[in-house]
Amino acid sequence: MKVWRYSRWDGSQRQFSLDPDAALDALSDLMMEGLSAEEALAWMQRAGFDLAGQDMRVMGIEELLDELRSELQNLERRYRMDEATADLRRRLDEILDREERAQRTQHGYESQRMNEFLDRRHSPSAKVSTAIERFRDWDFADAEAGELFRELLEELERTRKLEEFLAQRGDRFRGQQAADYETAQQIRERIEALEQLARDLADGNFQLIDPEQLRDLLSENALRSLLLVRDLRASLERAGYLRGGDGTQLSARAIRRIGAQALATVYGALRKGRPGGHDTVRTGVAIPRPDESRPWQFGDAFHVDVVKSLLNAVKRNGTSAPIEWSTEDLEVREMDYQTNCTTVLLLDMSWSMSWAGRFPAAKRVAIALDHLIRTRYPRDHFFVVGFSTRAREIRMHDLPEASWNAGEPFTNLQEGLMLAERLIARNPSPSAQVLVITDGQPTAYFQGRELHVEWPSGFGGVSPHAVAETLKQVRRITSRGVTINTFMLDASPELVSFVESMTRINKGRALYTKPSRLGSYVMVDYLSRRRTLRR
Fold it and tell me: In terms of residue numbers, what domain contains 100?
């Protein structure tokens, strides 16, 4: 059951609202590393995160706990507690001195009442609370002493707490400043509040934490961070980026935004002039470009821009009617010639892809391509196939949470190509292509229905059977007219040798690139493969 604790409004709370778009961007960065949405949320809460565009870092639970521990250590280094109860014992002695004088006056020094008083007063006791407790039921002869003693009784519970606190940790305080009774009580209460806050943070009990108490205990940035971390999940849910069910799942809206952000990242690299442009092929369906035209030439298709042609005639003849037309007045629209395309992206998900930022870069490209195709080329077919020891199709809604698999260290490119061939056969198009992103040569393959794995023979060697069977599949898919473009994330000689053999068979392209440049190559290559012509 959730518990909400409300505190006094002071006008400062309005600055603590979380931008769900910035939070989703931080979440998606972690998911690119292979974390699920739930794991990424937990990581953000524990380790904190940066809010892009806001020049702010949100402290995570670990940083908040560090600040709590630092505050506790500062108190221990500043104070000493050897005199913490001295004031209280002095007050008690002064009260009992008054009472002893009163008892001597009323009953005499040798009376039974006086002896009982002295027995209670001088019984050995290391705790001042015990000495106070002995006189709880004493009928004070000195009325003023009795009134002062009742004040000590009202303080008795706090006194016991302080004595227990000192017994457990008093020797940790080794500072130069001696704490009196009230200062020691304030230090105890502050440390107990710090430790309770630490337990609530460690257990994730954010709703039990009083922000006003945190403001008194820690810095303003810690308060801000706590509220943002506390509201992280709720903010993403209210924005429609998370949905319930079995665990935390990204909504379709969140996946679209992640795709748009990935595409913006890739196109940002393209605008900086990254390599990857290729020639186009003049086939496909003509699509007019708005606001672009040119004078008609003999042999042109008759895609006349009527408005511009009429304006040319008016400019030439004036406004007199009727308007006489000439072929030199005609303007035709510039056209883009396009065709639909079937693309299968083969994404290496073997363990080695976890190194050097390879997998996040590859997954970001996959998400960007999916977003590009769905938004700009809705008639295209696009599929993602992940391959490690086995290959499988990755549905678009599962792609943001896809990850490399440490339990599958082998690379079965052959099965990936088999699955790509089946997908292309079910979704034929004039321009079919396979994009392979990998960092290693094949080390797994099928013979019939039997799976084989094969470590490379010797250092820097190859897996000969896996390579041979994979190249057989390359020949089969090439016979269907499918182009294979390979993007290598490693320049090892064995991988380069294998990819060169593959490109000799298929006549596709092979590029070596760093993860940071991968998006530029793949995106430009996809756009050029669509066979777009501008005339």
Answer: 86-168
How many Å apart are CA 50 and CA 451, to the nearest integer? Answer: 45
What pLDDT digit, counting tens, does each position of 376-419 carry?
778 888 999 999 999 999 998 888 888 877 788 899 999 999 99
Radius of gyration of the chain from Cα atoms? 39
What is the rounded distance in angstroms from the CA atom of residue 260 to the CA atom of residue 296? 39
Token pair in block for residue 182: 């009230």
Return the CATH number at 400: 3.40.50.410
Neighbouring-strand partners of residue 79: 177
- Residue 442 near residue 411, CB atoms below 8 Å: yes
| Tokens representing residue 493 in the block | 């000689």
pTM, two decimal places: 0.59
413 and 430 belong to one structural domain: yes
Confidence at 282, pLDDT banded by 50, 70, 90: very low
Task: Report, as an integer, the average pLDDT of 214-237.
Answer: 81
Q: What's the gap between Cα 271 and its chain centre?
A: 27
How do 177-178 and 79-80 pair as beta strands? parallel
Evaluate whether 503 touches 471 at the Cβ level (below 8 Å).
no
Residue entry with tokens 């938004």: 375
What span, in angstroms and rounded, lies between the C-alpha atoms of 430 and 422? Answer: 16
Task: Give me the mean pLDDT over the 183-209 stretch.
Answer: 85
| pLDDT at residue 350 tops 50 | yes
Q: How far apart are CA 531 and CA 527, in angstroms?
A: 8
- Domain count across the chain: 4
Residue 337 in this model has a pLDDT that exceeds 70: no
More confident: 521 or 1: 521
> Do 145 and 196 belong together in one domain?
no
Contacts by 125-133, CB closer than 8 A, 24 or more apart? 127/163, 128/85, 128/88, 128/89, 128/92, 128/159, 128/163, 129/156, 129/159, 129/160, 129/163, 131/89, 131/92, 132/92, 132/156, 132/159
pLDDT at 278 over 50: no
Q: Are residues 206 and 292 in the same domain?
A: no
Identify the domain boundary among 302, 320, 335: 335
Does one domain contain both 456 and 385?
yes
Cα separation of 324 and 318, whole Å? 10
The residue type of 406 is A
What would the two tokens of residue 385 be? 């196939």
Are residues 489 and 525 both part of a single domain? yes
